[in-house]
Amino acid sequence: MKKLISVIVVSVFTLGLMVTSLNAGEKKLIIQGSTTVLPIAQKCAEVFMKKHPEANISVRGGGSGVGIAALIDGICDIADSSRPMKDKEIKKALEKGVNPVAHVIAMDGIAVIVHPSNPVNEITLSQLKEIYTGKISNWKQLGGKNQKIVVISRDVSSGTFECFNKLVLKKERVRPDALLQASNAAVVSIVKRTEGAIGYVGLGYLNSEVKALKIEGVFPSQETVLKGTYPISRPLFMYTNGKPKGLVKKFIDFVLSKEGQKIVKGQGFVPLK
Amino acid sequence: MKKKDIVCLFFVWFWVIAGLSYSGEIDILVEKLAEKGILSHGEARAILIETKEEVRKESIKRRHETLPRWIQNTKIKGDLRLRYQWEDQHNAPDRHRGRYRFRLGLETKINKTIKVSAGLATGGSDARSTNQTMCDGFSTPDIRLDYAYAEWTPTTWLTFKAGKIKSIKKLIFRPSDLLWDSDINPEGISFSLSKKMDNCDLFMNAGFWILDEEKGSADPYMWVVQPGVKYEFGKNAHLKLALAGYIFDNVKGATLTNGKDTSGKYNTLEGGVLKYNYNSIAPSIEIGFKKPFGNLIPYLAIFGDYVHNPDPSENNNGYLFGIKFGAEKVKKGTWQAKYMYRYLEKDAWIDIFPDSDAYSGHTDVKGHEFAFSYGIGRNVTFGIDYYYMERIKDTGRKNLLQVDLKIKF
Question: What backbone torsions phi and psi does residue B15 show, to the nearest 5 degrees?
């Protein structure tokens, strides 16, 4: 019995010490979730902390689902998400006494680009899907030159690919001979040098060296994305538990401020202002 | 309150309370506000999306609140597993067995911090198996209490559980079943503590578990304390490391049972009772990588367990190492393959707790295990598990093949 009591005492003491030491810095703001939103959250946190030296913001990725689960479990203060919460996530949150409130902080729009000499000006979503899944392989099939289509895609870990995959490919596989690039800038660089190439980039990376195609008759622009007429776009969210207060409110307000929205634009996304 | 918030709240009220059913009307109103320059196009779009999300939430809330309180707070879940099993054992005829497992569980939330869970399952009194073998001319099999416990979570980082607690794999970090069969539901008290930090999660699991009640002598029980850490290297790799310390009391000089097997089949006995103590240390490790080869292999992990019992001077070590790849969690259309090699010496660990499929769950066992599972539909999985096990010191070998269809609900 003495042994049992001593083990209990030692364990409780150890736990107590651990809890005390772990809780020493609990006042900080924890942001977790979407890897797409991660660069916005990181940059905003960096600038925000310079302006508010007392703030201690920790930003983590993990994916939208992970961030939402963390918000529901009370582990983070803000959940970054590149999709709306699912019904079952909302239900689970409400059951746990968490009131998820959505804040749209930016729009994500993807432009489809070709070489400037390409005579094709517009394309439909289904044609785009057929190009990327290998069913269309020559520009002639789209009213262009008799030229093989060189398909440029992003690596599967990128948020841009995630968005393109969901809105265009509907989760079908990209053709195996597609050239995978690690960044938007690399896609632009290849497309501008390759006549038969097609690629896709965040709206912020469009320039005069490549030609953006109309999708379903709509040209990709900040205006068409914000109006909701351009089809390859989606909102990016930050979720909070209830209406934000204190440091959480200050941070959300900062992200939605002119300065925060400038950061959004700088990261290749479409700002709301 | 900001202009955007006021507009958003107004539309939520209008839609939910006043019952405006045409989302198009709200779209037009917001567009008008944007055209007149009261809102920017971005703010207008954000309002529409946020309003839609708020309305969706309100509708889920209302739907949920119309249910009786006990249904709102109670979850029922279960599974059925159908199995074909082939066994080829040294000096014994081959066996072809039809088996099934049915489990039904219930979880009720008592208040914000307390939950009570209970589950029923097929099988006999064996702590390591809930399988029911098809036999005895369609006789009606038993159904038993699989677990019944209360869970108290006073804060997000601390959880206590007491009773017959569901699943050893939720109580301690164990990447393999070298020491603990996954069907074991310990009895006693457990608690877990966790703290998430930047790229690093600290955790500590502990438990006081009662092994038996002896009427004429001291009761055997055990303690486990397992501190650990999970460290994330960027978003695509992690390392999880833990060190478990086990303390057994009143076990040396006693015999233990798990409802089917009695200790000492392979542990060393002296005078018909256990000769050694089994206070052990057991480190565990798992290193995981997301998409190491693109979409072809979405997840790959290598893992291992080790155990050392300092009491005996020989035959007192055990280890397992393995690799798994494919989907991290098998869902519809995804697969996972796994390989493990185990080596568990005679007195490294008590012989009534290890995986019951690895040479009937004894010690003095070494061998290979290959497993493959595929999600053939939503909540429906097909799996194959093959074991080739041999005795380390003694003579004997056993082949075991299991083909499973698992249906969860």
Answer: -70, -50
H/E element holding B329? none
Contact yes or no for A188/A201 (Cβ under 8 A): yes
Q: For residue B334, give the nearest of B383, B287, B368 by alpha carbon.
A: B383
Strand partners, B192: B159, B205
pLDDT tens-digit readout, A18-58:
554 444 444 589 999 887 888 899 999 999 999 999 899 99
Which tokens hold the place of B320?
């397992």
Model confidence pTM above 0.95: no
What residues in A contact B49, CB-CB < 8 Å?
84, 102, 104, 235
User: Mutate which of B5, B39, B153, B195 to disrupt the A interface (most A C-beta within 10 Å)?
Assistant: B195
DSSP alpha helix (H) spans, chain A: 2-22, 38-51, 64-72, 87-95, 125-133, 159-164, 184-193, 222-227, 246-256, 258-266
Of A137, A122, A17, A37, the residue nearest A79 (C-alpha): A37
Walk me through the domains of chain A, giving residue ranges and CATH numbers. 22-107+234-266 (3.40.190.10), 108-227 (3.40.190.10)
10 Å CB burial of residue B52 (0-12, 13-18, 19+) is middle
**Running DSSP on this structure, what letter comes out for residue B169?**
G
**Residues in chain A, total:** 273
Q: Which domain holds residue B8?
A: 3-65
For chain B, the 3-state helix, strand and coil shares in percent, each to the nearest 5, are 15, 50, 35
B361 has a pLDDT exceeding 70: yes
DSSP SS3 for B192? strand
- For the record, the structure tokens of A58 come out as 């920790």
**Residues of chain B above pLDDT 70, percent:** 94
Residues B297-323 have pLDDT tens digits of: 999 999 999 999 999 999 999 999 999
- Cβ count near B393 (within 10 Å): 10
Q: Which two tokens stand for residue B395?
A: 């003579």
B60/B115 same-domain check: no
Do the Cβ atoms of B42 and A155 come within 8 Å?
no
Which residues of chain B make contact with A30, given a CB cutoff of 8 A?
Answer: 196
CB nearest B50 (choices: A75, A102, A273): A102
Shared-domain flag, residues B192 and B125: yes
| Predicted ipTM beyond 0.90 | no
Residues B122, B15 share a domain = no
Nearest 5 degrees, angle CA A40-CA A45-CA A50?
Answer: 135
What is the average pLDDT score of chain A? 87
- Taking any CB pair shorter than 8 Å as contact, residues of chain B touching chain A are 40-46, 48-50, 53-54, 56-57, 60-61, 64, 72-73, 109, 112, 156-158, 191, 193, 195-199, 202, 204, 206, 208, 221, 223, 225, 235-236, 247, 249, 291, 294-295
Identify all chain A residues contacting B249, using CB atoms and an 8 Å cutoff.
3-4
